[in-house]
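Researcher: For the record, we're logging two predictions in this thread. I'll number them. Prediction 1 follows.
Model: Prediction 1, sequence and structure:
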Amino acid sequence: MPAVVEAPEGAVGSLASDYGPRFSEVPLNVMHGDERAFFESFVEPAKRRRYVELLGSKRGRGKICSSLDHFKDLDMRFCQLVKPAEQNPTNTLRILRALGAGRMCHVMSSARSLDGRDMELEEALRETIGGGSGAIVSCVPGTLAYFESEERKTRYVCHRRT
């Protein structure tokens, strides 16, 4: 028998209906720790809880992935626009490595070919930068990430000092 997951306390709107009274279709491994850490660290405080709740279901996560193309909820205290001259894989990799990025990363993207993949950072940047899709490249969970929307020149390095 599949595990039964009750709606989180205070769940409202579509989230509550996603769970239903005895929602049992949510795989227990839907939420990736890197993704949760990104939304807890780099999204506007008033919206963090909602995003984390959405990550808990396949349908909610899909909504988030679709929204990455035009995502406007970054906490700008921790996300800095990459200078236009540096908006390429080589320079962005250099910036991320200087801030502590390792060889591997996790990608959440509106592009199905990239979404949910753990991959080498250099490859992830080559495939996301200028690719026309919204993407989060998590380098150090909750501490360092790269974000790009499909809109031109909207490329950010998100960093929180530990």
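Researcher: Logged. Prediction 2.
Model: Prediction 2, sequence and structure:
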Amino acid sequence: MFAKATRLPKLASNFVLQLNCWNCRPAVPSEGASFLQGVPLSLPWRLLVNDFLIDQILPAREVHIIAGPSGSGKTTWAFQTLLDWQKGKDVLGYKSFPVPWAYISSDRSLDSVHATLKRLKIPLEAFRMASAVDSGLHDMRDILKAMSVVTPRPQFLYIDGMLNLLPPKVHPNDNRAVSGWLADQTRMCKKEDMTLLGSLHSPKMKTDDWYANPRQRISGGASWAGFADTVILVEPVAPDDPSQMHHRRLLVLPRNCKEIIKNLAFNDEGRLVEVEEVLNDDIFYAFLLTIKPGASFHVERIMSVFSGTISSKTVQRMLEERIQAGEIERVSKGIYRKIGTPHSQWEPT
């Protein structure tokens, strides 16, 4: 499909130049400068012969999605993780199979991307990147055509703001149109040995408004999660609790592997790191803050808040603790009533 190199329009040529000039010497290379000039040869890139880019988590030649509310840290987490992956380090305990790849921003300029990398103390030459905003490319076909003349040709693309690459006639809430478009991208992946990871937004919701099925927490129609292979969510653990504003919950939902759940927090450098302390009690506290005194709630509502990530035994333990503290009472089997204000070590005095 893209094997034969053709002369690209000026916009696409500029886009390719951004990618081919990654880590080049001199600082302002010519359009024909080789990508390999100055590239660290220690990167364990190889021709794609595996069925996975990350064993069990990220199948090759498929379309995957990473989602979360604006500012949740999905790009931060992705940058950190992909840098480990491209070095061949394990990701979330699973073996990595790195290939040539590139980061494409379809919703930010390169200056904005550089600012994020500087905050994370990631060198600007750490990986290949290009901005569809700067280049004026807003169609997936143009992006993929441009990839065909990049050396080495990327076999994996992380596309920030994938929504912006939808054809003009495809509405993001139109399930049939979106599913058809995603099916087209999947066929392209199979034919071209390409893997796509696209970022999407999920709406900001109160804790008790979360859908029980995490795949349903993506903005737009159900087809986004339904037709994607692996779905990754980076979400606030307790959107209603200001004391938990720096905490995130990572959910990795492969199509054919068990889900992975990690508790993360922003450190002083703005990087997302795993936290060892269990945040379940804090999430439960934030949930109780959303319940008005005298109002009743069902235990299933609590289970939906945790997205099925904790056992019913743990929920019962937390309920009993709040009953002993005089904050809730049992009305009947599975139904409780809030009778007092929950207390937390994080509450302001």
